Amino acid sequence: MRVQLCAVGRLRGGPEAALFEDYQTRFDRTGRALALGPLALSELEDKKGGGMAAEAALLDRAIPKGAMVCVLDERGKVMSSPAFAKKLGDWRDQGVSDLAFVIGGADGIDPALRARADFALSFGQMVWPHMLVRVMLAEQLYRAASILAGSPYHRV
Length: 156
Fold this sequence. Notes:
By secondary structure, the protein is α/β, with parallel strands linked by helices. It has five helices and five strands; from the N terminus they run E-H-E-H-E-H-E-H-E-H. The chain has helices at residues 15-32, 51-62, 81-93, 111-116, 130-149, and strands spanning 2-8, 39-44, 68-78, 98-103, 119-122. A five-stranded parallel β-sheet has the order 2-1-4-3-5. The protein starts with a strand and ends in a 7-residue tail after the last helix.
């Protein structure tokens, strides 16, 4: 199951980019034997300042056709890491070939795009900087692959 992260904004060099790349590599390596990955990143910028609707159009074009869409949204489902791993494994086992995680811009995700998503995931009620959310998602993907592989990375 290929995993695409579609995000508004660009991660330039710095600690967030380095952390994302580290967890991306770990997920790709661990997930390969589990039919998970690779994890690809599509970064989008609305240079014309069209707001959420313009960002949604850019995100929509970046989402692979036929992909299951999971938006990251504060109103989404809060899950434990083992529950997230199970969800990822279930999607894979159900034959999902492409999974797209969507991170909106500063104002969030356009309501129309959010409404058509297959799943909404939340990292809690707090609002997190979008650059950190990418790192947190990449880490949780790696953690999920580690859980599914029976690795000791995740300790209960």
